[in-house]
Specification:
With 1046 residues, the protein is mainly alpha-helical. Helices cover 69% and strands 1% of the residues. It has a two-stranded antiparallel ribbon with strand order 1-2.
Length: 1046
C-alpha cells in the first residue's frame, strides 16, 4: 500500500483536475483499510516534499479516529513516536503544525486511558526548548489539546501558568508570544476556583503588551485574539477581570479611537466595551470608567463613515455602546450625554449636531426617568435639529423623536402641540431619508395618543394618503405604519378615512414581486389595525376578500409577510371574537406551519482545520488547531423566521381565547407547540408562548366543560401550564419572560381559585421566594470583585410582576394566606429600605395594601412594622407613592383592628395635606378620602368627626379613582342611615353630593342604589324640611335623586 499511496498523494497535488479527482477516489478507497495508518505515518516521515508530508498528516488526522482501536499496541506506539519525531525534527512549519493536529486527535483517546503518559512531559520539555519552532508548536498543541483533554491539565495548572506567562513575555520570538496568546485563550474555560482566578489575572498585562506589539507591527489579525480572550473573560461566570478591567478598557478605547486601524479591528474593541457595559456594568462604575468611555463613544458618533460597511461603522457601533450603557447605568450615563448634546447641538460641524440628537435618541430607553425631568430642554434641542439645514441632522432628529415617542411615555404625548406640527413639516422634507424617519417618528408618537390626535387628524391623513399614492415603495411602507398608528389613536374617529385606506390596500395585498412583498406585508398589517379601530359591525361583511388575500400570501415564501399576516389574523380574531371560528380551518394550519419551521438558528459547521482545500484534502499552510469533530464556528439568528414564529405563537393564543370551544380540534397540537416554544432559544418566542398558554387554558375549560372526562382533561392542561410557569420563574434567564410567567400565574390564580392551584402552591411559594430574594437565573448579576453597590435600580418589569403574586395568593386564600405571607414578609420588606429606589417602595406599599385588603385580620400582626413606612410615604414627592400609601393606610385600618388604632392621630396628620389645595393629583385625594372612610367605618369614635367630615365632604365626589366609591359612599350613607349627628348637620352638602353621584356615568348602579337609600332616609327623617334643599338643586339633579330613592 505504501508505494501506491505515495504516488496517489503526489498525483493529488498535481494541478490537473482530472488527475486530482482520480487520486481522491482511490485514496478514499484505500483509507477504509486500517493499514492506511502506518502507510501515512511512513510518508509523513519520509516523503521528499513538504506538501506530500503535510497531506499525509492531514489524511492521518481525518482517518485516525476510525482506525485507532483496530491498531495493534506496537503500531499505536509507532504512530505516537513518529508524530513526536515529526514535531521535533521536521523543518517545515506547516508539516509540524499538521502533525500536532494529529497528536491532538489521538490524545483524546490515548491520554485518558493512560496510553500516552509521556505526552504532557514531552510538551513541557518542548515548550522550553531553545528552538523557537519547538516552543511554538508545543504552545499550539497545548491550545488544541484543551478541546480534547482539557481536564487532564488541571493538576498541572501552576506549571502551565508559569510556562504561558514566560512565553507571553518571550523577547526573542514574536511567533512564540502569539502562540502563547492563543494558548491562554484556550485555557480560560478551565479557570474556576478562587486561586486560579487570581493567578489568571497576571496574564492580562502581558496579553495587552503582545497585542500592542502586534498592532504596532501591522499584525491586527493577531491582536484581535486579545479581544477574543477579553470576550471570554467578560462572559465567564468566574470573576476573572478584577482591577484589570481598567487596563482592558484603556486598551480598547485606544484601539477603537485609532482611525489608522482596520474597521474590523476597531469594531472588536468597541464590542468589548459593549460587553463590559452589558455584563460588568458595576465594575465600570466602581472603577470610574463610565465617563471616559462615554467621552470616547460620543467622539466616535462624530466620526464620518465612508458607507462601505455600515455594520462595522464606528459611529453606529458607538451608538449601540451608549444604548447598552444607558440601559445598565442610567444615572451615570445621562448627565454626560446630556452635557455633550447641549454643547454639540450648536456646533458649526454638522456631524456634532447630528451626534448630539443621536446620543439623546439612543439613551432614551435606558434613561427614560431622568430624561422625563428635562424633557422640555431636550425637545428644544431635537425640534431645533429637525429644522437644521443639513439633511443628516434632520434625519437624526427624526430618529430621536421616534425613540422618544417609543420610550418617554406618557410624558412625551403631553408635548403633542409642539411636536406634531414639527413632524408634519418634516413629512414634506426634500430628503426621502428624512421623510422615512419622520414617518417612523409619527408612527411611534401617535401610537400612544388618544383624543389629542383629533385636531390633527385631517391634515395628517391628507398628507399620508397623498404620500401613499405618490411615494417610492420604501416611503409607502413607512407611511402605512404611520397610518396604522393614527388609526389606532383615532379609533372611531378614523371611520371617515377607513374606506379610502382599505380600498388602497387592496392593490398592495395582491403584489407578488419579491421587491414588493414588504409593502404587501405592511398593507396586510394596516388592514388589521383599521379593522380594530372601526369595529366588527363595519368590518365583518367586507373582510372576506382581505382574508383571502392574506391567506394567498403564504405561498410567496416571504417570512416577513407571514409574520405580519399572523398579526393581521390576531387582530381579526380579536374583533370578530367567536365569529372568527369560521376561518380557523383555513388559518390555523398556516400558523402551525410557521411554528414548525426550523428553529431559526443557522449554525455553520467547520469540519476543516484549515489544512484542506475545497476538495477535502489539499495541502495548504495553517495555524489552526485540530479538531476531529465538527466545530461550531458561528451561530446567527435568522430574525425573519424568529419574528414569524413569535407572531404565530401569539396568534395561536388569541385564536384559542376568542373562539374558545370552537378551537377544540386544534387544542392538542397547539399545546404541544406552546410547550416546545416555552423553552425556545430566543426570549421573544418564549414570551409569546407563556402568554398564549394562559389563553389555551381558557379555551380548554370551555372545550371540556360538557365533556364526560372534562375535569380531568382540563386539569391536565392546567398541570402542563403550571409546571412551565414555575420552571420559568426560577430558570429562565430573561426578565420579561419571567415577569410574564408571574403575571400569568396571578391571572390563573385569580381566575380559577384556591382549589385548583392548591397542588402547586408549595412550588409557587418557593419560586416566588427565589425571585423576592433575587436568586433566580434572570437575576444573576456580575460577580467581579467585591462590588458592594447599594444604588440598586428598580427592576420595574420583573419585580412589579412578582409583587402581583402575593395579592393573588391572598385573594384566593383569604386569612389562610397568613402562614405563607409570614415567609414572604422579610424578603419583601428588603425593598422598602431607604437605599432602594422610590419605585421599590411604591411596589412594596401597593403589595402590602392589596394583601391587607384580601388577607383580612391577620394583617394586624404586621401593622406596627408597616405603618411607619407607609406614613412616611404619604409625604413622598411621587404621586403614585402617595396614592398607594393612602390606600394602604385605609386597608391597614380596616383590617388591622386594635393594632392600627394607636396610629390614628399620626394618620390623620399625614393625610391632612392630601385634602388641601397643595395636592395636585386627584387620584391621591380620592385614595385619601378612601382611607378616612375606612377609618370612620371601623372606629368612628376615634375620629373627630366634627373636624374631619367638612374636609372629607369637600373633596367629594371622587374625581378619578372610582374603585374607592364603595368605601367612600358606604361610609357617608352609613353615617346618614345611623342618623349620626355630625353628618346630619351637613345635610345640604350631603344631598348635593348624592345628586352628583347618581348623575355620574362613572359610578355603578350598586353605588347609586346605596345613595338612593340614604337619601330616602333623609326624606323620611326631615320630610318637608328637605324641600328648600331640593329646590336649590338643578332640576336634573333633583329628578335623578328621586329616581333612585326607593
Amino acid at each position: 500500500m505504501a508505494q501506491s499511496l505515495e504516488l496517489l498523494l503526489i498525483q493529488f497535488l498535481m494541478p490537473d483536475n482530472d488527475a486530482r479527482r482520480q487520486a481522491e477516489d482511490q485514496i478514499k478507497r484505500l483509507a477504509k483499510d486500517p493499514q492506511v495508518v502506518p502507510a501515512l505515518v511512513h510518508h509523513l516521515r519520509t516523503a521528499k516534499t513538504p506538501n506530500v508530508r503535510q497531506l499525509a498528516a492531514v489524511l492521518l488526522r481525518k482517518k485516525i479516529t476510525g482506525h485507532w482501536a483496530k491498531l495493534s499496541p506496537q503500531l499505536r506506539q509507532l504512530v505516537k513516536q513518529s508524530l513526536i519525531e515529526s514535531i521535533t525534527l521536521e523543518h517545515s512549519p506547516p508539516v509540524r503544525r499538521a502533525s500536532a493536529n494529529v497528536v491532538s486527535v489521538i490524545a483524546k483517546y490515548a491520554v485518558p486511558s493512560g496510553e500516552w503518559p509521556d505526552l504532557l512531559p514531552f510538551l513541557f520539555q518542548c515548550s522550553q526548548s531553545a528552538q523557537e519552532e519547538h516552543r511554538e508548536v508545543a504552545l499550539i498543541l497545548f491550545s488544541s489539546l484543551t478541546e480534547t483533554i482539557g481536564d487532564s491539565f488541571r493538576p498541572h495548572f501552576a506549571d502551565l501558568h508559569s510556562l504561558l506567562l514566560k512565553c507571553l513575555q518571550d523577547e526573542t520570538s514574536n511567533r512564540v508570544r502569539v502562540a502563547a496568546l492563543k494558548a491562554v485563550g484556550s485555557f480560560l474555560e478551565f479557570i474556576n476556583d478562587g486561586a486560579e482566578v487570581v493567578k489568571f489575572r497576571e496574564f492580562i498585562p502581558s496579553i495587552l503588551n503582545v497585542s500592542r506589539q502586534c498592532l504596532a507591527s501591522g499584525e491586527e489579525d493577531v491582536a484581535i485574539i486579545a479581544f477574543e480572550i477579553f470576550d471570554e473573560l467578560i462572559e465567564s461566570p468566574a470573576p476573572l477581570l478584577g482591577e484589570s478591567v481598567k487596563s482592558i478598557v484603556q486598551f480598547s478605547l485606544e484601539v477603537c479611537s485609532n482611525q489608522h486601524l482596520e474597521l474590523s479591528t476597531r469594531h472588536q474593541a468597541i464590542q468589548i466595551i459593549s460587553w463590559l457595559a452589558k455584563y460588568k456594568s458595576k465594575s465600570l462604575k466602581k472603577h470610574k470608567l463610565v465617563a471616559p468611555i462615554l467621552n470616547a463613544m460620543c467622539l466616535l458618533l462624530v466620526e464620518s463613515s465612508d458607507g462601505d460597511d455600515d455594520d462595522l461603522a464606528p459611529d453606529r457601533a458607538a451608538a449601540e455602546v451608549i444604548d447598552t450603557m444607558a440601559l445598565n447605568l442610567s444615572k451615570q450615563v445621562f448627565p454626560p450625554v446630556f452635557e455633550f448634546a447641549s454643547m454639540s447641538c450648536q456646533n458649526v460641524n454638522p456631524k456634532f449636531r447630528e451626534a448630539s440628537v443621536t446620543a439623546l435618541g439612543v439613551v432614551s430607553e435606558g434613561c427614560l426617568d431622568l430624561m422625563k425631568d428635562k424633557l422640555q430642554h431636550i425637545l428644544q434641542i431635537v425640534l431645533g435639529a429637525l429644522r437644521d439645514q443639513e439633511q443628516m441632522v434632520r434625519g437624526a432628529a427624526s430618529f430621536a423623536l421616534g425613540q422618544f415617542a417609543e420610550h418617554l411615555q406618557p410624558e412625551i404625548v403631553s408635548h403633542y402641540q409642539s411636536v406634531l406640527p414639527c413632524i408634519l413639516n418634516s413629512l414634506d422634507d426634500a430628503s426621502d431619508e428624512v421623510k422615512e424617519k419622520s414617518y417612523y417618528a409619527l408612527a411611534a408618537f401617535c401610537e400612544n395618543m388618544d383624543a389629542e390626535i383629533l385636531p390633527f387628524l385631517d391634515p395628517l391623513m391628507s398628507k399620508l394618503l397623498a404620500a401613499l399614492q405618490s411615494s417610492p415603495r420604501k416611503l409607502q411602507e413607512t407611511c402605512m405604519s404611520a397610518i396604522g398608528s393614527v388609526a389606532a389613536a383615532a379609533e372611531q374617529a378614523f371611520i371617515p378615512y377607513a374606506e379610502r385606506v382599505l380600498e388602497l390596500m387592496k392593490s398592495f395585498m395582491v403584489l407578488t414581486n419579491d421587491e414588493d412583498l414588504v409593502s404587501r406585508a405592511r398593507a396586510t398589517e394596516l388592514v388589521g389595525i383599521v379593522a380594530m379601530s372601526v369595529g366588527r359591525a363595519r368590518m365583518e361583511s367586507i373582510l372576506p376578500p382581505y382574508i383571502e388575500a392574506a391567506i394567498a400570501g403564504f405561498v410567496l415564501e416571504f417570512s416577513e409577510l407571514r409574520e405580519y399576516t399572523h398579526g393581521f389574523f390576531s387582530n381579526i380574531a380579536e374583533i370578530l371574537d367567536d365569529g372568527f371560528a369560521q376561518y380557523l380551518q383555513h388559518v390555523v394550519p398556516l400558523v402551525f406551519s410557521s411554528c414548525n419551521l426550523d428553529d431559526g438558528s443557522a449554525i455553520d459547521i467547520d469540519e476543516s482545520d484549515g489544512d484542506e482545500n475545497i476538495n477535502g484534502f489539499g495541502g495548504v499552510s495553517s495555524d489552526d488547531e485540530a479538531h476531529d469533530e465538527p466545530r461550531v464556528r458561528n451561530i446567527s439568528v435568522r430574525t425573519g423566521v424568529l419574528d414569524e414564529k413569535a407572531a404565530a405563537t401569539q396568534a395561536l393564543g388569541l385564536f384559542a381565547l376568542h373562539t374558545k370551544s370552537a378551537y377544540a380540534p386544534y387544542l392538542e397540537e397547539t399545546l404541544k407547540i406552546l410547550v416546545r416554544h416555552s423553552s425556545y432559544f430566543h426570549e421573544d418566542v418564549r414570551l409569546q408562548a407563556i402568554i398564549a398558554l394562559k389563553h389555551v387554558l381558557t379555551a380548554a375549560e370551555a372545550v371540556f366543560q360538557s365533556h364526560p372526562e372534562g375535569s380531568a382533561k382540563a386539569k391536565e392542561v392546567l398541570d402542563t401550564l403550571m409546571k412551565i410557569y414555575i420552571k420559568t420563574m426560577t430558570e429562565d434567564d430573561d426578565k420579561e419572560v419571567v415577569a410574564q410567567s408571574c403575571m400569568s400565574v396571578a391571572d390563573v390564580v385569580n381566575a380559577i381559585g384556591y382549589a385548583a392551584i392548591e397542588p402547586y402552591l408549595s412550588q409557587l411559594v418557593d419560586a416566588t421566594l427565589v425571585l423576592l430574594r433575587e436568586e433566580s437565573a434572570c437575576q444573576m448579576v456580575e460577580s467581579d470583585g467585591d462590588i458592594n453597590d447599594d444604588d440598586t435600580e428598580h427592576d420595574e418589569v420583573l419585580m412589579d410582576a412578582v409583587s402581583d403574586l402575593l395579592p393573588a395568593f391572598a385573594k384566593c386564600m383569604g386569612p389562610h394566606f397568613a402562614p405563607i405571607f409570614a415567609k414572604f414578609f422579610g424578603p419583601l420588606m428588603k425593598y422598602a429600605k431607604a437605599v432602594r429606589p422610590p419605585q421599590d417602595r411604591t411596589m412594596v406599599v401597593a403589595c402590602l395594601a392589596e394583601v391587607a385588603q384580601n388577607m383580612g385580620a391577620p394583617i394586624a400582626g404586621y401593622v406596627d412594622t408597616v405603618m411607619p413606612l407607609v406614613l412616611k410615604e404619604l409625604a413622598s414627592s411621587d404621586a403614585t407613592n402617595r396614592r398607594n400609601a393612602a390606600f394602604c393606610i385605609g386597608e391597614l385600618c380596616k383590617n388591622g383592628g386594635e393594632a392600627a388604632l394607636k396610629f390614628y392621630g399620626d394618620i390623620l396628620r399625614g393625610l391632612s395635606p392630601l385634602f388641601g389645595e397643595s395636592e395636585p393629583d386627584d387620584a391621591v385625594r380620592d385614595n385619601a378620602a378612601g382611607a378616612v372612610a375606612r377609618m370612620i367605618m371601623v372606629h368612628p369614635e376615634a375620629i373627630p368627626l366634627n373636624q374631619v367630615l367638612p374636609v372629607f365632604l369637600k373633596v367629594l365626589p371622587l374625581k378619578e379613582d372610582h374603585e374607592e366609591s364603595i368605601a367612600v359612599y358606604a361610609c357617608v350613607c352609613n353615617l346618614v342611615l345611623s342618623s349620626n349627628p355630625q353628618i346630619l348637620s351637613l345635610v345640604p352638602d350631603v344631598v348635593k353630593l348624592f345628586a352628583q353621584v347618581v348623575l355620574s356615568p362613572a359610578e355603578t348602579d350598586e353605588v347609586k342604589v346605596l345613595v338612593g337609600r340614604a337619601f330616602s332616609h333623609l326624606m323620611f327623617v326631615y320630610g318637608q324640611q328637605m324641600q328648600p334643599i331640593l329646590t336649590a338643586l338643578p332640576p336634573a339633579h333633583a329628578n335623578a335623586l328621586s329616581s333612585f330613592a326607593p
